[in-house]
Each structure stands twice: as C-alpha cells, then as structure tokens.
Model the fold of this input.
Amino acid sequence: MIIDLHAHCNNGSKFDCPETEIDKRSFEFLNKKHSLLNIEAIGISYYSSVLQTENIYQDNASLAEQCKVDKKIFQWLVLDPRQEFLFEQIKSMINCSKVLGIKIHSVCHGYDIEEYADKIFSFANELKCFVLMHPDKISNMVKYADKYPNMKLIIAHLGSIEHVDAIRRSKHGNIFTDTSGGASNLNNVIEYAVEQVGSEKIFFGTDNYDSGFQYGRIQYALISEKDKENIFYNNAKKYFAKQFKNF
Ligand SMILES: [Zn+2]
Done:
C-alpha cells in the first residue's frame, strides 16, 4: 500500500495546466499510473489553484465535491494569503475527514513568503494543521516553525541539503518533507535525508511526475525496508490518522 501525499491534476477549468502528448494532467491518467503501484490514496490540489490565483475558492469547493465521490482522493486546501475570504473558506472546511491541510505556493502565486509567513503560519497554528509548501527560502522557514509549534510544515520536493538542515534545526520537530518531484533523482538525496534526520520526517509524493519513477526512487534506495515503509505509508497513516483510518 502506498499513499501519495502530494499530487496535482487538471479539473476542466479554463485555468488548467496545458497538457501535451508527452505530459498528461488529468486525474484519469494519474490514477491509471497510480493503480499499477497500488497507490490507494492521493492528496490533491488542482493545478488551476496552485499555478495562478483567480479561481482558488471555486477550485477548493469543486475538489471537495470530487473527494465525496472518490474514496481515493484527499484534498489540500489552497491558500493565497492576499485573499481574505480563503481564510474563512479554509476554516469552514479544515475539519472535513478528506482534508489534509493547507497548500501554499508563493512562487507561482507571486508573493514574498516572508511578507506573509506570520499570517499564514499563525493561522495554521490556530487550526493545528499541516501546511504543504512549495520550497521557498527554506532556511528562513525554521524560525516560523519554531514560533508556531502547533503547525506542521511540509517543505515539499526533497532535493537539497537545505531541506534536511531545516528539518534538523526545527526546535519542535514540526518540519517535514516529501519525495515528490524531479529533484529526488539526485542519487543520494533520499539516503542522505534518512541518514541525517530519519525516515519519520519524509512523506511519499509524486507531484504528478511519473508514478513508477517516483516509486522506484524509494523502493531502490539504499535505506532499510522499515524506512521505505515509513515513507510509503506509515508516516502518512501516523500523522493523518483520521483521514487514513480505513487504509
Ligand atoms: Zn506541488
């Protein structure tokens, strides 16, 4: 069993991510690949809500509907901290059993993470929830994790020593990472992270990169079987016990 905690797909909106013959974006395609690997649960935010900022409210609402009809799908609620009504929306949805937490993407949304960090992370601290962030000013995030200990921060796309240092430096142990994305193809990055901070801080994700590639990077890593299990599903089941209780 595998849980993909970090994925994206299109949803038929006019803000969808352009798809080509060699790079598919639909949920159906993602699911077809995932099914080959017994990936049984997928944490999603729509491309249209992370790549731009015009349709986030509607996307959060429509993904919630998709969650209701597909057991596999779990939701990251996307937040652009400049849109006040999104804080209200997230507050009203955060306790849903299909919601994993808040997703932020300062790079694609086009704001300075440090300018809005207190606003975002104090809100997450109040909700005691996870924030999944696209990496941005990684080293500087440690002070916010220390300041807001009830929030848990996943700095996505493990692909640098900075990721690992941030996990190690956080006072309350509330920084995590995920293996999603192309950067995990560095040939010792997974091994280095496990050796330095342990496998309990690392979640499995694909970011809609090829599932087999992302799986293989963990399955054939120079780490123990226990570490692989932690990354593939144990950590997700532990930290998202409510959401994944039937998995
Ligand atoms: Zn992502």
About this structure: The chain has one domain: 2-16+23-239. The chain has eleven helices and eight strands. The CA atoms of residues 8 and 215 lie 16 Å apart. The chain has a mean pLDDT of 97.
